[in-house]
Amino acid sequence: MPKLLKIDLLSVILIIFIILSCNDDKEVDVSSNLDLEIGYAREYFNQNREELFGRFSLKSGRSKLMQLHWEGAHFNKMDDAQLIIPFHFNNTLVAKTDGLQMPLADISYIMMKKIGDNYFVRRIISIPILESSTARLDPDCFSGVQFVQKLSGETVDAYTFENGIASRLNVNGGSRDNRMYLDCYTIDYYECQNVFVPDYGIDETSCNYSYSETICMEHGGTEGGSDGSDNTGGGGDNSSYPPGNGAGDSCSGPGVGEPIEDCGEGYIMDENGDCVRQVQDPLQDIMKCEDLDDTQLEKLRNVVKEYLTAEYLASCLNNQIYQYNIDHGKELCFKMGTSTGSPGEYVSSNETIFFRDNQDIDETVFGEEFFHVYQDLFYNGLPSNLGRSNVEFEAKLFHDLSHGGQCCIAFWDPEIQEEYVDWIREITDWYSKMPIWTDMSGKYFQFMEQFIQLKPEYNFPIDYQKKPEAIFNLNDCL
């Protein structure tokens, strides 16, 4: 009998423990839920990317232009079932309409909402009344026109907003039939990139027309959200977009509001409304000594921050290089005056990066020399003769692969540069991914040979057995 009583007491203790454990689980960590939802949404988006974009790849000539900033994803504050994801285009698409000129990523975002086993996926584009009133501002007070599109580019819904209060419009594609249309918007899209002008040593922005989109609308006399009846991009029968009723008269004026982005841990919003890596003074972690004046040192601090928050694939890749060098205990000295007359120089023997003069303290020069530091660690030393051309070309190629068309530091000759840029676009799928050897093996050594012919200072014997493994060691973060 005592033995049975002992078993009963243990059972009671076990039951109490289980009950207490269950009660603890009732406290839900919202941030954990967001991380889980982002993970599910990201997996769905990557697995269904080609289907989601559909004819967009045909319309624009690209299939993987859009790079989503999952680190900045957050729930819509007016509908916590909707996940908002910022993005940018690798070729910096600029939208021009009604006299306004705005980077498309500044006036649009991706909306994903889980419906059943799929996701309802739409791109929301906001055309503000005022250029300063972008889609990044509080939707409670947004004034302008908002288009709801499939990622294929087809507009399926439209709304006018006044201080965040929405009125639904009927969308009539690009035609103007005999119905009473309210208005037609034509958006011209331009591809813009910074082009280095060697004669003047400056970057200029060059924009080329890409395509146009015309959307005509009339008052629909209905309320509610996008029907979402198609299954392209996630299925479901209603997106419940737009959520909420806006702030109305409580707004102090059209387009007035405060940024609402929660960029996530380790990220902050910059002055352009973009989520960037939060850095204090990253130079301190890689510097052991310097011989710079106050102006030069402050400029270098800003350059290193810029290096870690660069656009396109560069941000992800540069952070990996930065962390790799730190993890391997590399600390550097920074000084002025290169021995070769080049803008920058890394001397492995004394672990020093030199800059030619003040204007050469920039992200491009620092990035190339810091890549040489990474190569020095990765290859266990830099070659002085055979293979030296390889590491020089690899460093310049890395910049051109990762900076989204801000080209080029490997070639300035216009004829070769055109062929080189076409090759870069092909092997990166328009700057959306880093290549593997099978992508680039056909022309890699051909361009290296042209590189050393045009730049005699790098004319050392090529090691044809040496692949750009330092590049392949980096994850392109897709």
Helices, by number, come to: 12
Helix/strand class: alpha+beta
Averaged pLDDT: 74
The residue ranges in which pLDDT falls below 50 over 5 or more consecutive positions are 1-7, 21-30, 56-64, 131-137, 173-181, 221-238, 252-261
Q: Distance between termini?
A: 65 Å
Q: What's the total count of β strands? A: 19
Shape: elongated
Compute the gyration radius: what is it?
A: 27 Å
Query: What topology, given as strand order, has the largest sheet?
Result: 2-3-7-8-9-10-11-13-12-5-6
Q: Helix share of residues?
A: 25-40%
Let me know the largest β-sheet.
Answer: 11 strands, antiparallel
What's the short story on this structure?
By secondary structure, the protein is an alpha+beta fold.
Descriptive overview:
The chain has helices spanning 2-24, 30-47, 49-53, 56-60, 294-308, 313-327, 363-378, 388-402, 414-427, 437-440, 444-454, 469-472, and strands spanning 66-68, 74-76, 79-85, 87-89, 93-97, 100-103, 108-115, 118-128, 144-149, 155-162, 165-171, 183-197, 202-219, 267-269, 275-277, 287-291, 332-336, 344-347, 352-355. The chain has 478 residues and is of the alpha+beta class. The chain has two domains: 30-250, no CATH class; 282-472, no CATH class. The N and C termini lie far apart (65 Å).
